[in-house]
Amino acid sequence: MDICRGAAHKYGDNINTDIITPGKYMELSIQEMAKHAMEGVDPDFASKVSPGDILVAENNFGSGSSRETAPQALKEAGISAIIARSFARIFYRNAINIGLPALELPEAGEIRDADQLEVDLTAGEIRNLTQGKTYHFVPMPQRLLDMLEAGGLVAQLEQEK
């Protein structure tokens, strides 16, 4: 999982967990919930995402409740990484814990919807293939990269048994 490639799906500030996974779908399976991900800001989100695509947002992505269902539904929908200027801390950690890279990038606002992106987690680079730009982020510690590679914290702990 060192490299993620896909189209950008761009959103703005303060996308909270109730927008990512609306409360009325909480009793559904993650597979069914993923069909309604981001419905509050983009009713067509689930039908537009292809496996490997990358969600890009502005400030404070994932604020609100501590639901793990928010990053789980995005991952289930096909999102391979999330790039934002900033994340709510609990969302950030939940994403990493379920094996979904969450990357802070001050220049996230420069990325446009549908830009083709390539994220190199090990090198700490995001290449915008559409615009011909390269951005740098602080690479994750090896321990977190190992967790992502394993598919998340629970999967990593199961592999270590």
Description:
- The protein has 161 residues and is of the alpha/beta class.
- Helix content is 30%, strand content 20%.
- The longest helix is centred in the middle third of the chain and has 9 residues, at 69-77.
- A hairpin with a 4-residue loop joins strand 5 and strand 6.
- It has one domain (3-160): Alpha-Beta Barrel (Aconitase, domain 4).
- It has a seven-stranded mixed sheet.
- The chain has helices at 17-20, 30-34, 45-48, 69-77, 89-97, 142-150, 153-160; strands spanning 3-10, 54-57, 81-84, 102-104, 116-120, 125-128, 133-136.
Task: Describe, in short, the structure shown.
The protein has seven helices and seven strands. It is of the alpha/beta class and 161 residues long.
Q: Architecture in CATH?
A: Alpha-Beta Barrel
Average predicted local confidence, pLDDT: 94
Q: What is the end-to-end distance? A: 22 Å
Give me the CATH superfamily: Aconitase, domain 4
Per CATH, the class reads Alpha Beta
Strand percentage lies at 15-25%
Note the topology.
Blueprint: E1 3-10, H1 17-20, H2 30-34, H3 45-48, E2 54-57, H4 69-77, E3 81-84, H5 89-97, E4 102-104, E5 116-120, E6 125-128, E7 133-136, H6 142-150, H7 153-160
Parallel strand pairs: 1-2, 2-3, 3-4
Antiparallel strand pairs: 1-5, 5-6, 6-7
